[in-house]
Amino acid sequence: MKRIIATMICWAVCLATAFAQSKSEQLTYTGIEVHFRLDKHKLDLGYMGNQASFQHFAATIDSIGIERIDSVVIVSQSSPEGPYKHNLWLSEKRAQSMQRYLLQEHPYLEEKLSVHPDGESWAQLRNYVQADTKLKDSTKEKVLKVIDADVNIATKKWRMQQLSVYRYLLATYYPRIRNSVFCIVYYEDIAMPELLPVEPLETPQFREPERWQDTIITRKKTTIAAVKSNLFYDAIAAFNVEVEIPIGKRFSLMVEDVFPWYHIGNKYAYQMWEIGAEARYWFFRDSKRDKLSGCFVGPYLMSSKYDFQWDRAFNYQGEYWSGGLSMGAAAPIGKYFNLEFSIAFGYLSTAYRHYDPAPDYSELVRDPSIEGRLGYIGPTKLKASIVMPLQVPTKKRKEIRYGYR
What pLDDT score was predicted for residue 209? Predict the structure, then answer.
C-alpha cells in the first residue's frame, strides 16, 4: 500500500516530464518513502526504516546508472493537523533536509535534483482510508465525506477531530503520511520493431492542468482570564478560587480567595477567610496555547482571619498578613486546562488569641494570658493548581492559496 501511494505521488509530479520524451525512449520512475517524526523536519535515520529506504535508494541509483537518470524529484508532505501555514513550512523544511542529505551522499545528482513541498497530505490519508479493510463501510463513508467536503481547511480538520475514528487514524495513518518521497525518473531504450503500414492516428490532446484556489479562514482566540483552584487546599476541604487576568504580553494580575467555613456548635471550628493578590511577570509563554503558560515571578500580598478549634485541645482565633515573592510555571495538560505549580517566600505575621469553651460548651471564654504576635520568614505558599483559561475569538484571518490539480 505504501508503495502504491508513493507511486501515485511520483506520477502526479512527473507526468509533465513523461509527455516530453521522444518516441525512441520510454520514461520509467520508481518511488521510495522516508518518514519524519511529529512536527519535526530533521532527518532521523533510525525512524520507521529510513536507513533501509536510503540504502534502497542508493542501490536503485547504482542499478539504473547515472547516465540513464533524467531527474530525482523529492515530494515532501505533512500530516493534516495543526495550522496549515505551519504544515506548509514543515513540508518545505523536510524537502530541504532531504535535499541536503542526498547531495551529501550523492553529489553527482545536484543538477538532476528538484524538490516539491506539497503541504498537507489529504490525498494520501484518503487512499489509506479507502484501502483499510478493518473499517466499516459506514465509517469510511463518514471519513471520506469530511475529506472531500468543499469547506475551508480549518473546518475540515475540526470535523475530522469530532469523528469517533479520529484517534485510530491519528495513530495508524498520520505517522505514515509525514513523509518525503523520492521519485527517480530514468529512461529505458526500446528496440524499434519493423513498422507495418497503418492508418494515421489523431495526435492525442492533453489538457492543461486545472488551476484551483482554496480560501482558508482561521479564527484566532485570546485568553482574557483564567479560573484556578489550588489542589492542596481542595485536599483539606478548604474552598478556594483564583482569577488571573493577563495584562499585555508579559504581565498578569491574580487575586485569590480561600474560605473554609465549618463549625459544630462551640466544640469544633475550621474557619478561615484569606484574600490575596499577586502581580506576575512571564518569562516564557507558549503562544500556541494561551497567555498564561510558561514561567513567572512576581510579588504578592495576602491577609486573613481565622478560627481553629478542636474540642479543648486547640482553640485559637486571630489574623495574619504576609508579603513576599512568588515563582512558578504553568503548562497545558489537555485541550481546555493547564496545570500550574508555584512556591512563595516571604514574611508572615500573625496576632493570635487563645480561648476555652465553657464546661457545657454554652459559650467560648477568651484567655487573656495566652495571646500575642508571631513573625516568620521562609516559605509561605505552596500550590499545585488546576487552571481553566477563558478564551474568546478576536480575529479572523483570511488566507488564499493556489495550486494545480
Answer: 54
Q: What percent of the chain has pLDDT over 70?
A: 80
Is the entire prediction scored with pTM above 0.70?
no
Closest CA to 328 of 221, 227, 230, 238: 230
Cα dihedral value 128, 132, 136, 140, nearest 10: 10
Query: Which grid cell sits at 150?
Result: 468543499
Q: Quick one: which H or E segment has residue 263?
A: strand 261-264
The Cα-based distances of 32 to 18, 72, 128, 180, 373 in angstroms read: 19, 11, 17, 8, 78
Residues 354 and 258 in one domain: yes
What's the total number of domains in the chain? 2
CB 109, CB 74: distance < 8 Å: no
Residues 209 and 276 reside in one and the same domain: no
Q: CA nearest 105: which of 179, 49, 69, 55?
A: 55
Determine the Cα–Cα distance for residues 300 and 379; give it in Å rounded to an integer. Answer: 13
Encoded amino acid at 185, one letter: V
Same-domain check for residues 160 and 26: yes
The answer to whether residues 172 and 240 belong to one domain is no
Query: Residue 76 sits in which domain range?
Result: 2-219
**Final residue before a domain boundary, out of 172, 197, 219:** 219
Q: Are 48 and 198 in contact (CB under 8 A)?
A: no
351, 303: one domain: yes
Contact criterion met (CB below 8 Å) for 147 and 126: yes
Condensed to tens digits (0 to 9), the pLDDT of residues 345-392 reads 999 999 999 999 988 888 888 888 889 999 999 999 999 999 999 988
